[in-house]
Specification:
The protein has one helix at 21-34; strands at 12-13, 37-39, 47-49, 52-56, 59-60, 65-71, 78-86, 92-97, 103-109, 117-129, 132-148. It is mostly beta strands.
Length: 149
């Protein structure tokens, strides 16, 4: 489920395509304890919709500067938080590291190499797993669409 290296802002991150039983268990915990909706495409990392996120503008060419804000994000047991962009071809790029707070507001740039079409701006957390952050459980906490024109 995780890349073989820790992602770096501006770098590419290729996510695994299988859902581990640990993540599936966490999704069930998230659903039952927080009333969350699980929204993920088959073969992609599921998104647990806990937070609200807004991206402006919602479309533009590759290289567009966007404003991003989110609220209602979890802070307990979070090891790290990244802002990612996944383009229409499935290529995921780390845009920046984010603070582990319930809300944030930032600006980021859609990668100049992003494929045209519907993409997603994603808040991704690494959660404490088995009392350690060395092998965190990866969860997409919130996402918003962005169309590369």
């Amino acid at each position: 489920m995780t890349a073989s290296r820790e992602p770096q802002p501006g770098g590419d991150l290729v996510l695994g395509r299988g859902v581990s039983s640990a993540l599936a268990g966490a999704l069930l915990v998230g659903v039952s304890s927080r009333g969350a909706e699980v929204a993920g495409a088959q073969g992609r990392l599921p998104t647990i919709v806990l937070g609200q996120m807004q991206v402006r503008p919602t479309s533009g060419p590759a290289g567009t500067r966007i404003g991003v804000r989110a609220r209602g994000l979890p802070t307990s047991f979070v090891c790290y938080r990244y802002l990612l962009f996944e383009d229409s071809s499935g290529k995921t790029t780390v845009l920046e590291s984010l603070p582990i707070t319930e809300s944030f507001q930032t600006n980021a740039t859609i990668p100049t190499t992003a494929a045209q079409g519907l993409g997603s701006v994603i808040v991704q957390d690494g959660h404490l797993f088995l009392d350690q952050c060395r092998h965190p459980m990866i969860v997409n906490e919130a996402s918003a669409p962005f169309t590369v024109t």
